Amino acid sequence: MAIFLTKDSKVIVQGMTGATGMKHTRLMLGDGTNIVGGVNPRKAGTEVDFDGTAVPVFGSVAEAMEKTGADVTVVFVPPAFAKAAVIEAIDAGIGLAVVITEGIAVHDSAAFWAYAQSKGNKTRIIGPNCPGLITPGQSNAGIIPGDITKPGRIGLVSKSGTLTYQMMYELRDIGFSSAVGIGGDPVIGTTHIDALAAFEADPETELIVMIGEIGGDAEERAADFIKANVTKPVVGYVAGFTAPEGKTMGHAGAIVSGSSGTAQAKKEALEAAGVKVGKTPSETARLARELLGA
User: Fold this and answer.
1) Which residues form the active site (predicted)?
2) Active site residue 24
3) Of 58, 123, 244, 260, which is least packed with CB atoms within 10 Å of its CB?
4) Residues forming the annotated binding site?
């Protein structure tokens, strides 16, 4: 089983013909992703050869969906044009938009998030500034390395890209049902809570690993949700225990003000909801193993 992405997902890539889009389209194809097209209005009607696999380029998301039945788009469009690209995907009614692009202005992210809401949330947005998501052995939509884990029993949701990769590697012998990198910007689409609900409903996910970081209150809200709605064991990690107050650390959303948003406050909220929280990624992985008896 999986959440949001399966072997049957038909994926298009907005920005496929750019250097980053080309690189990661090749890697996604290597992971078995069913990539059915790219989108670039200036190169519509052409094809791109990826090691013997010819991928057609369409002029719009709507055209790509009409011709291929695509239901997922991965967005590698530069920041200045990303808002328009996501709105185009929403207008076309695609089911899932995975926005990898880093450096999108917060008001642009807020605008396309609100636009998706106004259209009835027909398009699930993951990101922006995220590594995407992977269902090992089935499909990979984004930039998560496909060779560091295998299919298994753990569901992973994470704000941090690199910590996503580390946790997948640490628990690679057990494997993952799906791993979702939601991004660390102040405004994102899919949240910890959305992923937790999906993993709770997935019959083959036995344990959930949730990675947060300092700043905001997303982890505290997730703790409330876990307490009320999640029956499966959850293991957590919060990055940023040594971060100085008032300094933005890496992600745009990772800023602490007073006691609000600190790693300790998040750890305490999660533990109060019954979540076992590690102080390091390796300790978190050990806690997961203990709970699974692995």
Assistant:
1) 251
2) no
3) 244
4) 17-20, 43, 100-102, 165
